[in-house]
């Protein structure tokens, strides 16, 4: 207990440095506003809206966090779903407009990625931005993480701490094949689901449906239905008077996070991490996870039942095992 008492204020101090200030929120809102002006000047993007997502929307960003933005195309009241070639063309138009306006540097058009992305950094605010087209799914999963963080404030604190810890150990950079921030958030989520007693429920208890099927038709109706289902189930979980309460300190949760995943080398060949069920899942029980030639599987629950596998190099396993 003594060591936890020493660690707790240290973690709190780190959080004090990581937590965004009011000016950090205002700076990002200014970047979004400026981008809206640029988008409005592009003929092919007339009627499109500029909508942030990612850690900014889920409130899981630090003072130095980047900004993810989706440009949602006009499709009346219905959900738009542009093809990859259309997205590439529109991002190319936006790239030319940004160059013409000025104020942006390190512009990089990743046209042939699974999801085409335009990357840049603002000169005056030093904010890194990733721009995509019609990334409504990214917006929804950002809202899910925000809703989840409202259940227990320790989730947000842990995500910030784990991301900073991962950066310090050079395992928070998807460009080098390590964790992205989203997968780190899922690891923290899974940790909270598998604590004893559990702090967060399996995501199937929050939203049991299939977002791929449900994000169709009139956008306002689809989003409202998803939000209402999640709000009802979260309220039911939070108000369950028979639920055992986990009162672990942040220090205890951080140390137990490292302990839980320190044995990955023994588990990763046979078990995958599934926040949807809140359990370790046998890889061989799901044919979509085979062949098993990756060090670690993290089953993304957003959109539910659409499998995304994070392939992580052995250096990550080694780093975690060192704890």
UniProtKB/TrEMBL annotation:
Poly(A) RNA polymerase mitochondrial-like central palm domain sequence ranges = 12-146
Recorded hits in CDD domains, A to Z, give: NT_PAP_TUTase
Q: Which residues cross the membrane?
A: none
Q: Which domain of life is it from?
A: Eukaryota
Pfam assignment, any one: MTPAP-like_central
Q: This chain belongs to which protein, by name?
A: Poly(A) RNA polymerase mitochondrial-like central palm domain-containing protein
């Amino acid at each position: 207990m003594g060591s936890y008492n020493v660690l707790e204020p240290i973690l709190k101090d780190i959080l004090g440095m990581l937590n965004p200030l009011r000016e950090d929120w205002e700076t990002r809102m200014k970047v979004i506003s400026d981008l809206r002006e640029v988008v409005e000047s592009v003929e092919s993007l007339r009627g499109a809206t500029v909508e942030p997502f990612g850690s900014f929307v889920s409130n899981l960003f630090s003072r130095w966090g980047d900004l993810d933005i989706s440009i949602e195309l006009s499709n009346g009241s219905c959900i738009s779903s542009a093809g990859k070639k259309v997205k590439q063309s529109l991002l190319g138009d936006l790239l030319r407009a940004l160059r013409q306006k000025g104020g942006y540097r390190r512009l990089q058009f990743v046209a042939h990625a699974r999801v085409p992305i335009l990357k840049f950094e603002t000169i005056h605010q030093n904010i890194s931005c990733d721009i995509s087209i019609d990334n409504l799914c990214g917006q929804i999963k950002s809202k899910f993480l925000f809703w989840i963080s409202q259940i227990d404030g320790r989730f947000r604190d842990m995500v910030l701490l784990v991301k900073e810890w991962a950066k310090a150990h050079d395992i928070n950079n998807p460009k080098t094949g390590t964790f992205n921030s989203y997968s780190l958030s899922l690891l923290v989520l899974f940790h909270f689901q598998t604590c004893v007693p559990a702090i967060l429920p399996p995501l199937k208890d929050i939203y049991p449906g299939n977002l791929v099927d449900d994000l169709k038709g009139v956008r306002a109706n689809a989003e409202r239905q998803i939000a209402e289902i999640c709000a009802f189930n979260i309220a039911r979980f939070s108000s369950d008077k028979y639920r055992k309460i986990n009162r672990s300190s942040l220090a205890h949760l951080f140390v137990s996070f490292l302990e839980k995943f320190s044995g990955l080398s023994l588990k990763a060949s046979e078990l995958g991490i599934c926040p949807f069920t809140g359990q370790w899942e046998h890889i061989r029980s799901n044919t979509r996870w085979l062949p098993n030639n990756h060090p670690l599987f993290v089953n993304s629950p957003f959109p539910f039942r659409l499998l995304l596998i994070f392939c992580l190099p052995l250096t990550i396993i080694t780093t975690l095992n060192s704890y």
